[in-house]
TrEMBL record, chain A:
Major location (coarse): membrane
Lineage, uppermost ranks: Bacteria, Pseudomonadati, Pseudomonadota, Gammaproteobacteria, Oceanospirillales
Keyword annotations from UniProtKB, A to Z: Cell membrane, Membrane, Transmembrane, Transmembrane helix, Transport
CDD domains (UniProt xref): TM_ABC_iron-siderophores_like
Pfam family, any one: FecCD
SUPFAM superfamilies attached to this UniProt entry: ABC transporter involved in vitamin B12 uptake, BtuC
Membrane topology: Multi-pass membrane protein
Compartment(s) where it occurs, according to its Swiss-Prot or TrEMBL record: Cell membrane
Residues annotated as transmembrane: 65-86, 93-111, 117-137, 149-173, 193-215, 236-263, 275-293, 305-325
Official protein name in the record: Iron ABC transporter permease
Entry annotated with the keyword 4Fe-4S: no
UniProtKB/TrEMBL annotation, chain B:
Organism: Vreelandella boliviensis LC1
One matching Pfam family: ABC_tran
UniProt KW Nucleotide-binding keyword: yes
Entry's Gene Ontology molecular function annotations: ATP binding; ATP hydrolysis activity
Function of the molecule: Part of the ABC transporter complex HmuTUV involved in hemin import. Responsible for energy coupling to the transport system.
Keywords: ATP-binding, Nucleotide-binding, Translocase, Transport
CDD domains named in the record: ABC_Iron-Siderophores_B12_Hemin
Protein name, entry field: ABC transporter ATP-binding protein
Top-rank taxon: Bacteria
Length: 328, 256
């Protein structure tokens, strides 16, 4: 029983470590795995490691790679949760208009000439505002249903899309590149990787005991209630958790598409639908995917950088279509 | 001690003004059949008894505790529901589906153990679907899915079965096998309440009958006092002919 969970997770963990080593080694100056090892040892023990390699790894590449890992993991876990909540395997973390709200917040801060922390804070506020708006509207006078939540989210997202276009049209030209990069997802905004990384870890620990309840919930609310699941509190919990995870991810790196849709879906096709396996697997695979995508984004046309969202979409769309085509 | 009792229960059927308060007492070992035309509220009644639907007034008591005060997990250890329709959002195998019947008994950190697997496999065997254990439920026929759903509740092993048309989609042999399973559960001291459309299955396998009329009127009691042709004719607004076969009445609709 444990090996059923253990084997896929160990393989994914190895892939995650490999992706981090690649991300640390590749760039304007190549650093070999041996050097990375030296740096790691040097950092723990005394001296050792060459100073430049050490600065590059510890201060530039490692924080960025860890941020990418955290954001990818958060998005994939949020996507998997949204899919269970809406009982729709094609839902994604942005489906409820959350990234639109975050984008409005971030763009407004940029338009106001604010930087750094203010952009992040404003994006987080926008994401939460959008979450509550959608939930409040979908709840209405009666109770909400997945289809009603989905429709409200899609329509609110479309509304945010129009506002974003309007803001871009009205923005002064010199601010446009920054805004466009933010909209397409960009990890160079990421500062410290620890808050999203800790959030990811905490979420996984909290979700594992809920895994079997989520499995039952995926079979419909009535069946779940008949099997002893307190459906409404669990749905609330998933909704709030998925929103927080997405908001944290969007705040760290802008809106990065397809990770939250493609990663859970691919893992479901490969590993089945046990949420106890899928959720930690999503954290690892989503993180790995985004670390690799970000490494590509900063090396493909170096010294220029591409928005990482473009890479995830370019990788994600064909993979997804291929899997969907094969699965018929 | 009764398994389930209702006190002045009025079920909440949309656009129905009132209805007769139900004071049912279900004892261990009894098999109840709920009969009524389409839209009479059979499913609503069953969901109300399961605590999945709030009653308009009155209360339901499970083992002498008010259902609304119990936790869902606690309820699920005593009462199992076979639903009339099922949605499958995500693909799952037959064995995985039966295994979720163990959910109410496992703690959050616990994985299903050998005993849980053994129960699920025995239930699949009992319902004649063990050979399908690794198939995806979405690829099964309607009757096979119905049997998997019943196997899930058998894995759950409740004291009280609430089954909404358990013979739906089943062929003749499996209809009779499922009814025999229900009777066997009752003989072991559990209680069964099921909604049925087939009067003849009710006449053969149920010992108590509840007749539910579209206007909310109801009457209930031992089978022989309920399965009276005149009462059934007014219930379904259908003329019936009755013959006796194998010691049980058989009702046949007649023209006119």
């Amino acid at each position: 029983m444990l090996s059923r969970l253990g084997l896929p997770l160990s393989l994914l963990l190895l892939a995650a470590l490999a992706s981090l080593i690649i991300a640390l080694g590749v760039g304007s100056a190549q650093i070999s795995p041996a050097q990375i090892w030296d740096v790691a040892l040097g950092h723990i023990g005394q001296g050792g490691g060459d100073a430049l390699a050490r600065t590059m790894v510890m201060e530039l590449r490692l924080p960025r790679a860890l941020s990418a890992f955290a954001v990818g993991g958060l998005l994939a876990v949020a996507g998997a949760l949204m899919q269970v909540l809406l009982r729709n395997p094609l839902a994604d973390p942005y489906v409820l208009g959350l990234s639109g709200g975050a984008s409005i917040g971030a763009l407004a801060a940029m338009l106001g000439g604010l930087g750094g922390l203010a952009i992040s804070g404003s994006a987080f506020g926008g994401a939460l505002f959008s979450t509550f708006l959608v939930f409040g509207l979908a709840h209405g006078s009666g109770s909400w249903t997945p289809s009603r939540l989905l429709l409200t989210g899609v329509v609110v997202a479309a509304g945010w899309g129009a506002v974003i276009t309007l803001m871009l049209a009205l923005s002064p030209a010199e601010r446009l590149p920054g805004m466009l990069y933010w909209l397409m997802g960009d990890l160079s905004y990421a500062r410290t990787p620890w808050p999203p990384l800790l959030l990811l870890l905490a979420t996984c620990v909290v979700l594992i005991p809920l895994g079997r309840s989520l499995n039952v919930l995926a079979r419909g609310p009535q069946q779940a209630a008949a099997l002893g699941v307190a459906v409404r509190p669990l749905e609330w919990c998933i909704y709030v958790a998925a929103s927080l995870l997405t908001a944290a991810a969007v705040t760290t790196a802008g809106s990065i598409g397809f990770v939250g849709l493609v990663v859970p879906h691919m893992l479901r096709l490969l590993l089945g639908n046990d949420q106890r396996l899928i959720l930690p697997a999503c954290a690892l695979a989503g993180g790995t995917l985004l670390v690799l995508a970000d490494t590509l984004a900063r090396t493909m046309i170096a010294p220029e950088q591409l928005p990482v969202g473009v890479i995830t979409a370019l990788l994600g769309v064909p993979t997804f279509l291929f899997l969907l085509y094969r699965s018929r | 001690m009764s398994v389930l009792a209702t006190r002045d229960l009025i079920i909440d059927v949309p656009e129905r003004a009132g209805g007769m308060p139900l004071n049912l007492v279900i004892e261990p070992g009894q098999v109840w059949g709920v009969l009524g035309p389409n839209g009479a509220g059979k499913t609503t009644l069953l969901h109300t008894l399961a605590g999945l639907h709030a009653p308009r007034s009155g209360s339901v008591q499970l083992n002498d505790s008010v259902l609304g005060h119990l936790r869902r997990r606690h309820i699920a250890q005593r009462l199992g529901v076979v639903f009339q329709d099922r949605q499958d959002g995500f693909p799952a195998t037959v064995l995985e589906t039966a295994l979720i019947g163990r959910h109410p008994y496992l703690s959050p950190w616990q994985m299903e153990g050998a005993d849980d697997y053994a129960r699920a496999e025995a239930a699949l065997e009992r319902l004649d679907v063990a050979h399908l254990r690794d198939r995806l439920v979405s690829t099964l026929s309607g009757g096979e899915r119905q049997r998997v759903a019943i196997a899930t509740v058998l894995t759950q092993a409740p004291n009280l079965w609430l089954a909404d048309e358990p013979t739906n989609h089943l062929d003749l042999h499996h209809q009779s096998a499922v009814m025999a399973l229900m009777a066997e559960q009752a003989a072991k001291g559990q209680a069964v309440i099921m909604c049925l459309h087939d009067l003849n299955l009710a006449a053969r396998w149920c010992d108590h009958i509840l007749l539910l009329y579209p206007n909310g009127e109801a009457c209930w009691g031992p089978r022989d006092s309920m399965l009276v042709p005149s009462a059934l004719e007014s219930l379904y607004r259908q003329k019936l002919a009755v013959v006796e076969v194998d010691g049980a009445p058989v009702f046949v609709p007649i023209k006119g």
